[in-house]
Write the structure tokens for this entry.
Amino acid sequence: MSMRARNDRSFIAETIAIGSELLLGGRTDSNSLFITDVLGAIGVEVRFKSIVGDNRSDIVRVLKTACNRAGIVILTGGLGPTVDDRTREAIAAVTGARLARRKEALEGMKARLAQWGRIPNKGQLRQALIPSQATVLPNPVGSAPGFALAWRGTHLIALPGVPSEMRTMVEQSVIPHLLSQLQPSRSRGRQPLTRLVFHTWGMSEADVDAKLKGLIKKSLPVALGLLASPTGVLVSLTTEAGRALKEDALTSLAEEVRTRLGEWIYAEGQDTMEEVVGRLLHGQGRTVAVAESCTGGLIAYRLTQVPGSSSYLDRTVVCYSNQAKMELLGVPEHLLREHGAVSREVAAAMAKGMRERTGVSVALSVTGIAGPGGATETKPVGLVYIGLDGGDDAMTKECRFHGDRSVIRQRAAQAALDMLRRWLMNKGNL
Amino acid sequence: MSMRARNDRSFIAETIAIGSELLLGGRTDSNSLFITDVLGAIGVEVRFKSIVGDNRSDIVRVLKTACNRAGIVILTGGLGPTVDDRTREAIAAVTGARLARRKEALEGMKARLAQWGRIPNKGQLRQALIPSQATVLPNPVGSAPGFALAWRGTHLIALPGVPSEMRTMVEQSVIPHLLSQLQPSRSRGRQPLTRLVFHTWGMSEADVDAKLKGLIKKSLPVALGLLASPTGVLVSLTTEAGRALKEDALTSLAEEVRTRLGEWIYAEGQDTMEEVVGRLLHGQGRTVAVAESCTGGLIAYRLTQVPGSSSYLDRTVVCYSNQAKMELLGVPEHLLREHGAVSREVAAAMAKGMRERTGVSVALSVTGIAGPGGATETKPVGLVYIGLDGGDDAMTKECRFHGDRSVIRQRAAQAALDMLRRWLMNKGNL
């Protein structure tokens, strides 16, 4: 029964991203990630994703295949004003629907363009061509309307490829449309596909795996996922489509993950390390300053991605040269001479100098060898020292990272921010 | 005839990326971008891309469809040691091949693991299961071997999903294998799919389009592509598959693009703005320092992404507070009071102070409002001032960017680096 429920075609979806730039242009399709999340919340599972260029017969092929295996097919892209925009024609060819200029599509577009002081040009008028019998989906953000069409038991939905337009239309039109179309008898009791995410830093994938051993009983319709990246191991709990799960079962699993992984979890869900650190600083009324060397501004960039970060971030400096380390941070010349710029002693002096010169609550420092050059016999590429100075207490950490220049820099920035996070959490607990 | 050549199935490829994290995990498939480029160079066109989870029957469906429309099918992922790795079984199910533990696969894996001081565990032994009649493709980087199998006129190639392993195997094994398999009579005279890319900054997509109007005669088998992003408009010239093009025709088109777009082109091909700026600085023996406010370290991070940047980048500072602007850059308090931190006068003073205090050849500064907060009646979100001070000459620029916080910061960093690039180019021409 569970397999039957999982394979009920009505609740299987496919995304089709259309555009030659997704084949050749070095761009990946990220629209489908958003669509997968939002459909999951109403119990619909995206099982297939396709990508095809601006070629009518190729789109037709892909669309036919999708209609055979999915009850919901969402196409993004190819609705623009140029001759390269083939989605309308391909849908008409597959379904046999005629394209006609629809009044509601035209009026929405005119109203939208009028806001920008324009009238539709010839190309934009093409955008009002919608298959007969389709429902027009208004585009409150851009000029191209979308549409929804039921064909042989499949719900076809065509949306623009511009992410901001696609997102708005999915939330405002597509979800309400699907909820009204999916048969209530089937969707009643249908569970949303829930996915809980835990971001960890500092443990290997194998160690996380070991800590979570035996977490999920075989009978439970929940999948555990682990995914390693330069910024840590992501742990996910995903409910299976079409299988019932007691309301509190997922909650207890999540609690068990938190217990087993403890402070190794730095964030959950959509949260980022810099948001977590920012909230701790803001909540404790503390300020921070950062002295970077090998991370070259990455810590500063990440901290300032958070709106309002100016209230707790005083300043940051990138000191590549020894001269800059002495001038801006007061690192004593003899430390640089005796231990080298990449050393525990210099990391400590950078953090101390930064805190003393700025008067912030806590200063963070990083010095290391990101490579590919710069290694010595005793100091390999990937050797990084992190310093933290909070006045009463100060600490340093030695790390050895693997990977290319970019990966080493990402890991070093993550390790430094995590050191700050743990320090702030301990302060908050005092 | 050209359409026939384009639709010769032998030269049509499809990529299939396998892994539930590509459906639900917030990850996009970037392996296919690399595969598309490399296959293009031998005249093979990737026309379809599919993504599917770790579900055997779903992989089987996708694989059957791919074999019907493509002569070359490259699968990535699902070859690992766990029960979730289903690619081998799915290929066996579709082709009817039997899976057997192959000696050459096992020996390669053992040798690889021995380098790390390990022996294969039970899961890893599964990785040596290869369909009968398939050619084993060695994995010199990781433990899972790949394989190639001809079935009903389609070349099936299975590779690990780890990007570094996939790349090495494509270059070392897949391309030589395909070149030996594609019939010489067909591939002789077959043109590689060439793609030339020009990166521009400072012009709108419509303006670039207008400048390039009439560039390509209809009879020429070359497509012009434009793609807008926060870091500018990308222009591409792509040759069409299976159609002959005179050797110098693409060269002259590229020359014409350079003439028409001139200094708006900041880089070509894989080059980045920071690499171009870095080469100019290095070549001219000049040094640089940067004072950032709203970009929060992004300019520093980009400049230091380039290996060897320590030879020309002295230091950078992020001065969020007025205090930091006065202390670190010597910005006069009366300028901050009279004009505000986001002003042409303060941008100029930041650059001047930075250059004078560090003795670098040229200093760059940015101050602006990235939003969402911080706007005033006269200073909207997106208002950014850029300053450059080269001693004898100094300049400032006012910009008004649209978009969210992240987009405004990306545009501001790009604009500042472009100002530096143009200044260096003029110096080089003197």
About this structure: Chain B has a mean pLDDT of 91. Chain B touches chain A through 71 residues (CB under 8 Å). Chain B has three domains: 2-187, 195-268, 273-429.
